[in-house]
Write a structure and sequence with these properties.
By secondary structure, the chain is mainly beta. The protein has one helix at about 1-15, and strands spanning about 20-25, 35-40, 45-50, 55-60, 65-70, 75-80, 85-90, 95-100, 105-110, 115-120, 125-130, 135-140, 145-155, 160-165, 170-175, 180-185, 190-195, 205-210, 215-220, 220-225, 230-235, 240-250, 250-255, 260-270, 270-280, 290, 295-300, 320-325. Strands 1-28-27-26 form a four-stranded antiparallel sheet, with no helix packed on it. A four-stranded antiparallel sheet has the order 2-3-4-5, with no helix packed on it. It has a four-stranded antiparallel sheet with strand order 6-7-8-9, with no helix packed on it.
């Protein structure tokens, strides 16, 4: 029996990585302006930041099913499925829009710090946190009541994207310090901070909850860190100028403005490397994952041919939409 078991385990170790490719393009139209998307795989919804409003797409049909209006300068979306509520971070008006996820009706507004960027819901403590890029702080909100617990908690630099561990903690990239901080969401206290050098200017952040690994993306570098030890355990080369990264089924995907997504996986215990480079669209810089359907969503628009001697063409009007990667 032993040789059979050894061969079986060897077969698992040698299993090929899944192949991702463009499987759909969802047309939205309108202004060519966006930042983050958020995929609610439980309710089959994709929320898309779109300048002054937030679009809602049914991921079963890839059809636009609604719009949340008046989310001025919207950056991110957070969903509290257990509360039936959603939240957008509105960078222009320095507030959060609260909406009902069943009806998409706006139910309130909550003031934040200056230019709220990343926003996240921590389900254990029922807290919403906005990370405010201009005031270099975060605002802590009671998601159940919509009241502000702490209006401004300094983070010691410019906060970027965030993730939760499902145990009451929130991790955040600090872009201008090349650090990650860990926050106790119940109290709104910073518990730890650590360097993720050589990652310079970290923006996107993803998490592997099964192994408790964090993936931070910088220009041409992904840093994989262990938050328990506060150390970078590996790096991988990614594309140019990524702004987002998502995790799906054992792999991290960096969304690069150069028109490709870099798929990174564990190549040996504790070591990560590039598995594949997946063509997307020029400028497709943010990404979210449906970890049930194994699909990835990247907002972007079409770009015309570059003029003679030019570096990039002009955006094509009314071409805004979502590039969908799948298996």
């Amino acid at each position: 029996m032993k040789p059979i078991l050894i061969l079986a385990f060897a077969g698992v170790a040698m299993a090929a990585a899944p192949t991702y490719k463009v499987v759909a393009n969802i047309k939205i139209g309108g202004a060519n302006k966006t930042d983050y998307t958020y995929c609610d795989s439980i309710n089959h919804r994709l929320y898309v930041s779109h300048g002054t409003q937030t679009e809602v797409i049914d991921t079963n049909t890839d059809k636009l099913v609604g719009t949340i209006p008046d989310t001025q300068g919207v950056h991110g979306i957070a969903i509290a499925t257990d509360l039936g509520k959603g939240y957008t971070s509105n960078g222009t008006t320095n507030n959060v829009t609260v909406f009902d996820i069943a009806t998409l009706k706006v139910t309130g507004k909550i003031n934040t710090g200056q230019n709220p960027d990343s926003i996240i819901y921590e389900p254990v403590t029922h807290r919403v946190l906005t990370f405010n890029g201009k005031s270099n702080d975060f605002t802590l909100i009671d998601a159940k009541t919509g009241t502000v617990i702490s209006a401004s908690v300094a983070v010691g630099g410019k906060p970027e994207f965030s993730q939760v561990d499902g145990k009451g903690h929130v991790f955040v990239n600090i872009e201008d310090k090349n650090e990650i901080i860990e926050i106790n969401a119940q109290e709104g206290l910073i518990m730890k901070r650590y360097s993720i050098a050589p990652c310079d200017g970290p923006s996107g952040l993803a998490i592997d909850l099964s192994k408790m690994r964090l993936f931070s993306v910088c220009d041409k570098v992904m840093a994989i860190s262990d938050p328990a030890t506060g150390k970078v355990i590996s790096t991988a080369v990614v594309g140019a100028d990524p702004d987002g990264v998502a995790f799906d089924d054992g792999y991290a995907f960096s969304a690069n403005r150069d028109g490709a997504a870099t798929m990174v996986g564990e190549t040996s215990p504790g070591k990560y490397g590039v598995i594949a480079t997946i063509p997307t669209k020029m400028g497709a810089k943010t990404i979210s994952a449906d970890q049930k359907a194994h699909k990835l969503y990247l907002p972007a628009w079409d770009v015309g041919a570059a003029p003679a001697g030019g570096k990039a063409g002009a955006p094509v009007p009314d071409s805004f939409g979502i590039v969908v990667l799948g298996r």
